[in-house]
């Protein structure tokens, strides 16, 4: 009886450890960029949890970059794309892939509200069709340039 209990307990711990490892692996996704500048109240909403802006704070796929009515935020991505947010702005990073040695390119984000300025990096230069910015009323296909866009409202 004790041997069976021990074996079942070990199996449960092993299973829990495997699940923990999977969770840690998915949460340990590589950063895709970092915060370079910020003013006043700005930050990231990551998996529903707020992260205050600090120079060097890493940005990950799925993050929502956000500012309040006096905030501003500047982010640089791994492909050298620059994104600057003005006051009352929210941008969700839906996809980012920069693997030039394997031909893997993708940058998809949503401007939920506010104002954002973009200076495209290597993704837009090497694979222009792979970079898109969605707004509440249109999708912008970026073709290697800089631009600003404003969206009113919210989700």
Describe the protein.
- The chain is built from two helices and twelve strands, in the order H-E-E-E-E-E-E-E-E-E-H-E-E-E.
- The protein has 155 residues and is an alpha+beta fold.
- The chain has two domains: 1-29; 33-151, Jelly Rolls (Sandwich).
- Strands 1, 2, 3, 4, 5, 6, 7, 8, 9, 10, 11 and 12 form a twelve-stranded mixed sheet that branches.
- The protein is globular.
- Residues 1-28 have low confidence and may be disordered.
What is this structure's SSE topology?
Elements: H1 2-27, E1 33-39, E2 42-46, E3 49-52, E4 58-59, E5 64-67, E6 72-77, E7 82-85, E8 90-99, E9 104-119, H2 122-126, E10 131-134, E11 139-141, E12 146-151
Parallel strand pairs: 9-10
Antiparallel strand pairs: 1-4, 1-6, 2-3, 2-5, 5-8, 6-7, 7-9, 8-9, 9-12, 10-11
How would you concisely characterize the structure shown here?
The chain is α+β, with helices and mostly antiparallel strands and 155 residues long. The protein has helices at 2-27, 122-126; strands at residues 33-39, 42-46, 49-52, 58-59, 64-67, 72-77, 82-85, 90-99, 104-119, 131-134, 139-141, 146-151. The longest helix is centred in the first third of the chain and has 26 residues, at 2-27.
Percent strand equals: over 45%
Task: Give the count of structural domains.
Answer: 2
Overall strand count? 12
CA-CA gap between termini: 57 Å
User: By helix and strand content, what is the structural category?
Assistant: alpha+beta
Instruction: Report the CATH architecture of the largest domain.
Output: Sandwich
CATH class of the largest domain: Mainly Beta
Work out the radius of gyration.
Answer: 20 Å
Tell me the CATH topology of the largest domain.
Answer: Jelly Rolls
Q: Which segments are poorly predicted (pLDDT under 50) over 5 or more consecutive residues?
A: 1-28
Approximately how much helix is present in the residues? 10-25%
Largest sheet: 12 strands, mixed
Mean pLDDT: 81
Summarize the helix and strand pattern as letters.
HEEEEEEEEEHEEE
Mass-distribution shape: globular
């Amino acid at each position: 009886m004790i041997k069976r209990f021990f074996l079942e307990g070990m199996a449960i711990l092993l299973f829990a450890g495997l699940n923990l490892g999977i969770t840690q692996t998915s949460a340990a996704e590589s950063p895709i960029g970092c915060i370079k500048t910020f003013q006043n109240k700005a930050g990231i909403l990551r998996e529903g949890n707020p992260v205050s802006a600090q120079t060097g704070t890493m940005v990950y796929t799925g993050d929502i970059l956000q500012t309040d009515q006096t905030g501003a935020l500047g982010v640089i991505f791994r492909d050298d794309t620059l994104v600057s947010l003005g006051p009352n702005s929210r941008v969700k990073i839906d996809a980012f892939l920069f693997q030039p040695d394997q031909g893997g390119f993708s940058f998809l984000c949503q401007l939920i509200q506010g104002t954002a300025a973009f200076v495209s990096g290597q993704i837009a230069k090497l694979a222009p069709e792979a970079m898109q910015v969605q707004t509440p009323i249109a999708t912008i296909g970026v073709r290697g340039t800089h631009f600003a866009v404003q969206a009113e409202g919210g989700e």
